[in-house]
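Journal club prep — side note

Before the paper discussion, L.F. wants everyone to see what a predicted structure for a comparable chain looks like in token form. Sequence:
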Amino acid sequence: MAIERTTIHNHYVFRDDSNTFRWYDAQGPSAHKYLQDFTSLPVDDTTGDPTEFVNTVVEAGAGGDSTATLTDAAGGALLITTDNAEDDGYKMQLGDAGGGEWVDFSGDYPAYFGIRFKVNDVDQTDCLFGVAVTDTAVLDAVADGLYFRSVDGSAVLNLVAEKDSTESSLAATTLSDDTYVIAEFYYDGTSAVTAYIDGSSVGTIALSDANFPDNEYMRLTIEFLTGETTANTCTIDWVRLIQIHA
């Protein structure tokens, strides 16, 4: 693996020379991005919650708190731990309560999303990673988004395109307990969004799909819930979201 530099819409994009869909960074006046490897993270002095995000914390159980904190790992990682009642967990959207939606799929604005994560018990948890409109419970019934999702009772991770509360999806992979996976999608701006798992293409959703979310601004969204009366964990090694709007 090596990093190469290319030009997209007159912006520099730094990407993997073998997996060219995988963007590491972009530079230019209309290159917008969030790059986080969790070597450090600003948090609220009182609650300990990450201050880069709007956080919705559910902790109905009696086992402790639902938390999102840095954990010891080579290169850094975020550890999300749920309380021990079903649907306890942590919901995070980048930005603040007043706004933060900036991802736009309405035109030729290429975009990349990627995350490396693992879940301790994949068929007893719910997780969602990607972009969505502002919502405190995206897994329950978000109206618009483009994201990877796995639900309690199944280990299948799907790529979901959702517009006006109607969705299209493709099965991307089957998760395994406590095993890292890299889930990525690339929006080419003209024809389709392609899902990748551990560097391999697993399918596309066409921009012409009736459920492709092309009429709303969206924001980076991470949500993890337990699906049982047991505390569960999700470890995120890194997350990247990059879009060129010019």
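L.F.'s comment for the group: The chain has one helix and 19 strands. Keep this in mind when we get to the figures.
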